[in-house]
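Dear support,

We are seeing what looks like truncated structure output for some complexes. This example has two components. We would appreciate it if you could run it in full and send us the complete token output so we can diff it against ours.
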Amino acid sequence: MNGGQDLGGQMGFGPVRPEPNEPIFHGDWEKRVLALNVAAGAMGQWSIDESRHARESIPPADYLSFSYYQIWLAGLQNLLLQHGFVTSDELIEGKPSAPPRPPKRVLKGEDVAAVLRRGFPYAREAQAPARFSVGDSVRTIVIHPQHHTRLPRYARGKLGVIERVSGCHVFPDTGAQGQPETAQWLYTVVFTGPELWGRDADPTTRVSIEAWESYLEPA
Amino acid sequence: MSGHHHHHDHDHDHDNHFTPIEARVKALETLMVAKGYVDPAALDAIIDTYETKIGPRNGARVVARAWSDPAFAARLKADGSAAVAELGYGGRGGEHIVAVFNTPEEHNLIVCTLCSCYPWPVLGLPPVWYKCPPYRSKAVIDPRGVLADFGVTLPQGQSIRVWDSTAETRFIVIPMRPVGTEGWSEEKLASIVSRDSMIGTGLAVVEAQS
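Here is the complete output from our reference environment:
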């Protein structure tokens, strides 16, 4: 979706301002939001792409003014509400008034190290040969879906070259809508600066995206 | 707090020192624990992991190993996940790692324009600026301007390659080894590898002796 999250190439935000000696967290509540998101994700009730969609569905004016942990907090509350784990009243009160909905899994303290170390790999066995090879010219499709996609606006309808074939990976666009998991071939596609940004762009810069096969057409 | 006498009933006034966002987070955590969705011990273990165990020192050790051991560098180039696993790193937020090597011809810069994807197992949690609109908007259209914001100017003739992390692939930049570090131990080499140099907004440099 063309939401507040799709930032590539937008202007007017001013310079990047690194914070000297930045702490890992700016306040205890940020730690709790991080941990709640990681632990809730481990319940296995939604995919990483669905959680991204919950965050990018925050209205753009809010998205752009929230800190990133505020975005994560709002996204997690939305996921818990949408999946029926909590009610709005419970979020305000901070105590249960409806019976819990048993999750698929609950991450236990003693399992945290192993679960984080194992991670959640997204590569899947290929069901068909890859359509493209390294060196092929491709054009990205033009889409403006209402739902989640990982094809950013600045890279739609652009001519690029396949640089790397990364195997089959879980396809985000449908997974974010709660549909059964599918996988597609994933490629690194590289574009020149002028192809993305026009004739005045710096010809000595190149930008790549990771693109699933259905984002690409032969060119 | 000790010795300070409150006029009011302490229990009654309990929540007043929370800001609105702190109160919201506290309510959410209390609720999720009460409903049995999260184990408080797991929350503490997650925080401890990213505060004390996983951070950019991991990535610096990967870079130092790559500088010191050409065979490791070759394995890192061929299969980033397998190579960093040799040092014990990998997992959540970095299941598919690709290492990109700076050369005199090309400098690499990593970004996630759509959210905040970042190679957690080797760099830890991302800094605030990495997740904010100025960086995410500008990195793909004006990477040299971003480098200027960090006080970095590339040599004439060095091109820039920007990697937008739109999938679960996570990139780590392997900066060029500075001259004057010949014969250094891996530990000493790792000490000059900054977080920013592994994002591409910095370079690995030897501090001038004062």
